[in-house]
Design a protein that fits this description.
The protein has 120 residues and is of the alpha/beta class. Helices cover 42% and strands 32% of the residues. It has a 5-stranded mixed β-sheet with strand order 1-2-3-4-5, with helices on both faces.
Length: 120
Amino acid sequence: MVLDLNVSIRENKSIPVIDLEGEIDVYTYPKLSDALQYVFETYPNAKDLIVNLDRIRYIDSTGLGVIANGANQIKKINNGYINITNATPQIKKIFDVSGLISANFKIFDNEDDAVSSLSK
């Protein structure tokens, strides 16, 4: 059974936000990869990017890899960060166990906390 990934892009106080819904896996990761590339091209000077996982039910190693690659790209391009928001406890655990939390990758409980921190 292949579930879909819905992607939308918006801004919150000039910070690009990628909202995701569904599952991020080997079947759906191209949509996330395309969204990251779109944000990098549309917001070439963005130092920060928020990826909202509020409606993500599942993420596999392929999805983690896409997010890690995006984090490396924004670090290289603008010395910036990918900021994950609204991850469920299970998804947070996957990030923790994977060891992906790094200097250019942060997790916030919610989008407001991320925006407040990034606006300073």
